[in-house]
Amino acid sequence: MWKTVLWALVLAASASAQTPSVELANLREDVRGLVQRVGELSLRVEQLERENTQLRAQAGEAGRSYATVAQLNEAVAALNQSIRASAASTRSETLQQVSGQMETLAKQTNAAIDSLAKGLATRAPVQTTFTEDYPKEGISYTVQRGDTLAVIARKTGAKVQDIVNANKISDPSRINVGQTLFIPGGK
Fold this sequence. Notes:
mainly alpha; Membrane-bound Lytic Murein Transglycosylase D, Chain A; 2 domains; two-stranded antiparallel ribbon; 2 strands; 67% helix; coiled coil; LysM; Peptidoglycan-binding LysM
């Protein structure tokens, strides 16, 4: 019965298209459930061994035997063998599932890294040298929401390159709301 439940969990996990973190959480929960089930089976074996001991004691006290010791030992050995085989099979299936999910996650991670690398490769080079060739008189301007250097230049009548040089802005796409800029020749 628990094999059926395990297969249902495996099929449900593989059929759903969830995020890697959800898949990993589901997998951890499945493994936790399997570990719990193996623990329950181990407890059951211990219980059967205790019952076997009790039956031996009762047989000695009553002077008759309900089952021979050899029969009980065979039954316990068969049960232990069945549990070991089932646990090994479950571990193998779980490892295969984990391996597949890790491979999928690795592919997704590599794709994300490639995407980020391509984005960085297409970025404009950062300006590292600035000229002093701009008007030395001007105004202060506080960057507002929605402002870009081009918008600020249009508002103040200044040149974008003069604003970049005067404020030593290495990446013109990165100005912050509330930042105060010197606008050379601005009105």
